[in-house]
Amino acid sequence: MMRIVTEENHESERRFAHGVRVAEALLFASDQPLAAEDIARMMPAGVEVEAVLGELEHLYRPRGVNLIRAGGKWMFRTAPDLGYLLRRESEEPRKLGRAALETMAIIAYHQPITRAEIEALRGVSTHKGTLDTLLQAGFIRLRGRRRTPGRPVTFGTTETFLIQFGLNRIGDLPGLDDLAGAGLVEGQVPAGLHFPLPSDDPALRGDEDPLEPDLFDVMTEERLDALAGEPPLDPDDGALPRTDDRNGQS
């Protein structure tokens, strides 16, 4: 009886070790972060993907490359204390200015939010180029339209934002107590001041409508639908004369 249990344990350990190797290979080869569900589909029978990822995270923790979870997905990243080794080889990315950082922070904490609401919180007008920069960087996205006069567009953050800033979910953003503890809030915190609990739920809220499709896209789809209903062209209808006609042959 003891021999049977030992063999079963050995087989279970063998499958788990193979699962670790499979996950490691998938993460190494992928140029995009992978969700646990994507990795789970390749796991041996009976092997839990979360246990495998936990083992990999532990194995790589002291190494030059770490396994991290950001935006709900897993990826390999250079260990933070060794990042300086790669800065000389990589192209220096364009840094965001103060206005862009303030705007992005406001969107992250207050999403869904309109441009007018951003300006009200910042106390200054927001240049269109600031929002364009964040959109082009992939940090924010257009969510929908607010059900108010003028139907302004609402903005929210993206998965790219989470990955870029090493956040697993939007709720990992620091709260007021965290900022004060880090010395980023000067003086005494005013009574009643608080940060909203951030949420990047993709579902539209009760005061949001979906974005309308672009007019050009609508016209293109209508034209394609119309063409789909037309009979195929007759190759002799309006076509150039055939070679035998041009040569006078019957």
In a nutshell, what does this entry contain?
With 250 residues, the protein is α+β, with helices and mostly antiparallel strands. The chain has 11 helices and 7 strands. 44% of the residues lie in helices and 12% in strands.
What report would you give on this structure?
The chain is built from eleven helices and seven strands. With about 250 residues, it is of the alpha+beta class. It has two domains: about 1-80, Arc Repressor Mutant, subunit A; about 100-210, Arc Repressor Mutant, subunit A (Orthogonal Bundle), CATH 1.10.10. It has a four-stranded antiparallel beta sheet. It has a three-stranded antiparallel beta sheet with strand order 1-3-2. A hairpin with a 2-residue loop joins strand 2 and strand 3 (about 75-80). Helix 1 (about 1-30) crosses helix 3 and helix 5 (about 100-110) packs across helix 7 (about 130-135). The longest helix is centred in the first third of the chain and has 28 residues, at about 1-30. The chain is elongated, with a radius of gyration of 28 Å. About 15% of the residues are buried. Mean pLDDT is about 80; it is low at about 1-5 and about 235-250.
Distance between the termini: 93 Å
CATH architecture of the largest domain: Orthogonal Bundle
Number of self-contained structural domains = 2
What summary fits the major beta sheet?
4 strands, antiparallel
**What structural class should be given to the helix and strand makeup?**
alpha+beta
Reading off the top of the CATH hierarchy, the class of the largest domain is best stated as: Mainly Alpha
CATH superfamily of the largest domain: Winged helix-like DNA-binding domain superfamily/Winged helix DNA-binding domain
Q: What is the oligomeric state here?
A: single chain
Describe the global form. elongated
Strand percentage lies at 5-15%
SS element count, helices: 11
Strand order of the largest sheet: 4-6-5-7
Helix content: 40-55%
